[in-house]
Input
Amino acid sequence: MKYLERGYLEADELPPFPPEERINSKKPVAYIECPQSIPCSPCYESCRFNAIEMENINDPPKVDYEKCTGCMACIRVCPGLAIFMLQVKEGRGYVTLQYEFLPWLEKGDRVRLYNRRGEEVGEGVVTWALKPERNDRTQLVTIEMDKDLIFEVRAVRKR
Amino acid sequence: MRLESHPIVDFERGKEVTIYFNGKPIKAYEGETVAAALYAAGVRVFSRSFRFHRPRGFFCAIGKCSQCMMEVDGVPNIRTCKVYVRDGMQIRTQNSKPDAENDALAIFDKIIDTVFPHGSHYKKFNKSRKVREFATKQMRKLAGFGNPPKSIPDIETSYEEIETDVAIIGGGPAGLSAAIHAAKYGAKVVLMDENNYLGGQLIKQTHRFFGSARHRAGTRGIRIAQILEEELRQYENVDIRKETKVFGIYGKDVAAVQKDSKLLRVKAKKIVIATGAYERTLIFENNDLPGVYGAGGVQTLMNVYGIKPGNKGLIVGSGNVGLILTYQLMQAGVDVAAIVEAMPRIGGYFVHAAKVRRLGVPIYTRHTIVKAFGEKKVEGAVIAQLDDRWQVIPGSEKEIECDFICVAVGLSPAHELLYHVNAQMKFVPELGGLVPLRTRYNETSVDGVYVAGDVAGIEEATAAIMEGRIAGIHAAITLGYGGDEAKKELEEAVKDLEDFRAGPFGERIVCGLEKCVLEKEVMI
Output
């Protein structure tokens, strides 16, 4: 439980990565960084494909990467902002995350990229942004970045 | 200092009005409290303290502390965080000359501090009764308490007697839920709340809630308040009284004052006390300086009234409240210098910590705040590392640049009314302090008096809603409403709450509850 002393996960505490061919496929895949037993289950309840496994409301969610279709139902409702959609396409990496700050992001915006520790690790471009009012003001944004960064980048800010 | 835009909340401000603060005109908007309007205008010193005229700002902003007391339209000792602005309102600071900001008597503070160090007044004048009485009398003359008005205020008053089945005190998540479930089965309900809105502390919870979708997880707290209110308004047998302060319970008669002028006597068969909790404070040097706020106070200011608390904050406590507040401050465009936590690990949910950590907010575990500094308001703070015995490690002190400090170290139940009814109380640390003994249906040792929500033990809103449901249904059943259907739902509600508390985060609560179970004949 070292992560509770720091507030972020280190490499050895992360859930298993999705297999490479799944990351490289046509649909993005959900990656959930929610290791703690807390009474919360909206992601599990929102998944129509039974890709999220949970034994009870306190059990941390586990994603079955083969069943996940990348539909993004779970990332829309996660109150912990702990779900990220990952994808690699034509040699570029894409991360979709929840965004709740002003100014809202729009397609084409350049953003600074931050890792779990809050360190700036590069720059990316918004390739898709869900309008905030379509999801009770939690925007979903997809950021294009270096493909090696998709397991690193967990926050963005507008330049 | 007012926010014009916010990612989650649209601030709907009322008509512009002018209020007068010590004679000086200040712009405000209808719907704002006096304290919020003054804060937005840059006022930080609201009063002078009992002890030698030290400056005081507000602390809780929800009417539980008394740091923001002023004279309003000639009436002294009004909690300015609880009265709403009206055009032409006259507000004055009390017992300070010429005003609280520049108080001539504050010179005593400096002189006395050199002779009697801070805190010694607790012991100084207690040797003999005569000395104590004399000293107390002199100190009261100097202290910042108001003087009674010299003439009777010219206000129209009236009196109303109401008979009802269930009287509910407090319109937060617990009270609303109790009202809905008692009304649903046909009981006549009177719901009283001191605010001009329902929802209690939900109205500042802009984040999405945890839990299961069935209990509205993934929905923002502010929307849950709206959903509950709409649900309640479907029932015609509910009488909602806002801006109604309950000041006493005499037997089964609830005494309240509505809109500061109308006296109410509510003769009820059952009473549900759902009065919530107080923000707790923490002991450190200068913790009374303006700029040291309760976490909930800052949330109220920022998320309800759209007023920025400052430019850079320090958060003390890494429970869910401290972590969520940090994120909300950042959403309002306020910087957070750091979060300090005395325990060796983060107290709240990891995911809440992760989302502020990745935006660059440091979290110092095994650290505490040593002091705040500043003349009339916070200008910075010193934090330090703690050893295994919770003592400050010398040399580990670090200065933090900040202009306000949020104390998020927990809550205590607001239990006054329980003493009015003479309920059996017990000190249970796991539940946050003094709580009433209760049956599994949340009835106290006094027949027909129920508790629900934080007043029964500090938890969170989802549990409060579930407790209200249990109390409401049981009250209705024992009055003969509902029948088998109600009994079935009651058992279901008890089971739901048990399931909710079954995880590791519920362990402490369950352990606390075991200490205050009341085994009395429960009728169902």
